[in-house]
What does this fold into?
Amino acid sequence: MIPDTSKRTRSEVLFRHASKLIPGGVNSPARAFGGVGGTPPFMKKGEGAYLFDVDGNQYIDYIGSWGPHLFGHRHPKILQAVEHALTIGTSFGAPTEAEAELAQLVIEMVPSIEMVRMVNSGTEATMSAIRVARGFTGRNGIIKFSGCYHGHVDSLLVSAGSAALTLGCPSSPGVPAGATADTLVLPYNDCESLQAAFEKNNAELAAVILEPVVGNMGCVVPTPEFLSLLRALCTQYGTVLIFDEVMTGFRVAAGGAQSLFGVTPDMTTLGKIIGAGLPVGAYGGRAEIMNCVSPVGKVYQAGTLSGNPVAMAAGIAMLSLIRSENPYPKLEEISKTLASGFQQAADEAGVPVRINRVGSMLTVFLTSQEVRDLATATTSDTVRFSKWFHGLLNRGVYLPCSQFEAMFVSAVHSTSDIDQTITAAKAAFADLSV
Ligand code: HOZ
It folds into this structure.
């Protein structure tokens, strides 16, 4: 039976109240429902593959806190590790053994990382990686790709994806022109413009940064030619290749997208999963580059809460679980079933869709065009997407609230969760023709 989760009176009251106190009622714009309209459900609790809102509704969760809940909410091993850490202390501002333990796990699991520095968010990780790449090369230029989002770093907040795109501020006011003067924006997957940009600017280019599978304009998959050209050009011109694996790290494979596609970046940024839902980010790479970071080198980067003992404990538990459980075959299988169920449901309703998927990251684009970059992603019918999204939400399925985000499947989604989602998707697609 499909549940009815359309009554959200308490959430509406809380949202109105929060909106008087917090801009837009939210602490991060992506969750404000700006791209789909309506009121976001206020959550009371997560458990396994489910979220429960303050009105007593239960949802099958495909956001998983935008990526980190690879094993669902409140996995006992993660809770145990956090509870133990709490008995020791919440923050010392001094080194602890757990920091090297998590660093060791990251280095062993991600092929290109020889040294790593912990920070508190993906934004901090990308901001720091850019600074280090500039310090290492002595150059200022950066290439980023339109529709990729690397957190709200000034120099990268140009033609950005995620909520910046959904809410119509891909290049934000408040970012001085000087901050982005050295940022060159190119279309994703476009080998010709990449080659031309390097021919013209190679002496200036400190770094190229990209999401090696994009999540922030919806899920967009890189072509093998694009990735290998990137690697070749960066090697040829001494430019630092940065893979932003904040979403893909430990998500698409234990070694991230770089292990999946067999391309080795010089630096990698991580987030989400390495904190198991607590605020952690990290950046790492070749030792030669990482040794530029203070206090060994002169590139300054710091943080009182970096390497926080509670967050480190959660991260160690998460990466240890990944190693012991190897969730990827199951994630692949259920995500594939989900994607083909969505496709069949759309076909039956006569709704053109394009589904992009890499492992447990996927997006249903409401367009008939192949989606390979921002221009093709934005051919999607966002009005129809909003209707489909609400059709699912009202039937107990919680998807990312924008056409330009990826959904995440967890290893604790059951066959019956997937079946229920497909049944709800069918009904929501059928609503579109009404
Ligand atoms: N940056 C996240 C989506 N790509 C959204 C973060 C949030 O609003 O929680």
Observations:
- The first strand starts at residue 43 and ends at 47.
- The domain at 76-325 is CATH 3.40.640.10 (Aspartate Aminotransferase; domain 2).
- The two ends are 22 Å apart (CA to CA).
- The chain has 15 helices and 14 strands.
